[in-house]
Amino acid sequence: MSAEKMMSSRPPFAWGRFLRTFGTLIGFFLIVLFFATQRPTTFMSVRNLLNITQQVSILGVVAFVMTVVMVLNDFDLSVGTMASLSGIVIGVLLQADQPLPVVIIAALVVGMLGGLLNGVLVAYVGITPFVATLATLTIFGGLAFSISGGRTIFGDVFPDVLTEFANGGIPLGTINEQAVRLPHLTLIALAVLILVWFVLEQTVFGRRLYTIGGSMEAARLAGVRVRWLRLLAFVITGFGAALAGAMLTGQLATANPTLGDGLMLNAIAAVFLGMTMSQEGEPHVLGTLVGVLLIGVLANGFTQLGVDTYIQRILTGAIIIASVTLSSISRRNR
């Protein structure tokens, strides 16, 4: 066969498939390149890059566990108020002079119980995730206000070991005579990322979650314990939300009934951004990681450029809409 015939027999390069798979990732690197050219000495510095990882670590924990329920085509609107409630539990128990390990465990247990409630309402009672978690969002927020009396807890009630850990890191050396550290919160987020990736991608539990997300009825007919697995997914999400609340409370040395309210929308946005990288449109935690980093880079870069906070929110929302819309159009036209 001649070279010309061989070349003509090759299928054309599938640009649509390429953009569906790598469009969001390309966009992420273009945004990084833009900020790097605008602030070359500060944005791409090692200290700032590590600072970005710390800034997104709390959002990352929530988004990674949110991926677990979104694999099922469910979602959890209550993660933000659960994070706030977790922080309030920590603050109140510390005021009561309880030992720090007991306080942290109690906060995590509260998160798991909140996830258990969500799971029961969705998987066993049959309430849709939107309605169920919207209701528990209100319940958890009300509990946070009730327990704290609507007050912000701060000051010496938070032990130094908690705040120093949350704001500290592992020394990596010095650059330009400045100490560089790998933040502890970044390591926690990385551990959650690895654990969620392993569970979803390497275990029978994860494969069954994807099966349920593909077709709940088919999974049920195949003998998969659909209700039980949906319940466990919500418990995992509740645990992650409580962990994020503990991280946020330790970092700020503050417990407030509304402290975690902004986490839910950004976490869902990060998962949706990650879904644009999947040809099947399924959530994958590595895609969620890209979404989390994209949101963090935008916030950090806009701040360095001196963009007002409200303009940052408008631009970030517009970029998310554009990414998801282009991906949806590409999938419809494939």
Would you kindly provide a written description of the structure presented here, covering whatever features stand out?
The chain has 334 residues and is mainly alpha-helical. Helix content is 74%, strand content 5%. The chain has 14 helices and 4 strands. The strands form 2 sheets. Strands 1-4 form a two-stranded antiparallel ribbon. The longest helix is centred in the last third of the chain and has 27 residues, at 226-252. The protein is globular, with a radius of gyration of 22 Å. The mean pLDDT is 88.
SSE layout and pairing:
Elements: H1 3-9, H2 15-38, H3 46-71, H4 79-95, H5 100-125, H6 129-148, E1 153-154, H7 160-167, E2 169-175, E3 178-183, H8 184-202, H9 204-214, H10 216-221, H11 226-252, E4 254-255, H12 263-275, H13 285-304, H14 309-332
Antiparallel strand pairs: 1-4, 2-3
Helix pairs in contact: 2-13, 2-14, 3-8, 3-11, 3-12, 3-13, 4-5, 4-6, 4-11, 5-6, 5-11, 7-11, 8-9, 12-13
What keywords describe this structure?
334 residues, mainly alpha, two-stranded antiparallel ribbon, two-stranded antiparallel sheet, 4 strands
How much of the polypeptide forms β-strand, as a percent range? Answer: 5-15%
Helix count?
A: 14
Class derived from helix and strand content? mainly alpha
* Rough outline: globular
Rg, rounded, reads 22 Å
C-alpha end-to-end distance: 31 Å
Q: How many β-strand runs?
A: 4
- Are there runs of 5+ residues with pLDDT below 50, and where? none
Strand order of the largest sheet: 1-4
SSE topology string: HHHHHHEHEEHHHHEHHH
Report mean pLDDT, rounded to a whole number.
88
Largest sheet: 2 strands, antiparallel
Q: Regarding quaternary structure, how should these chains be classified?
A: single chain
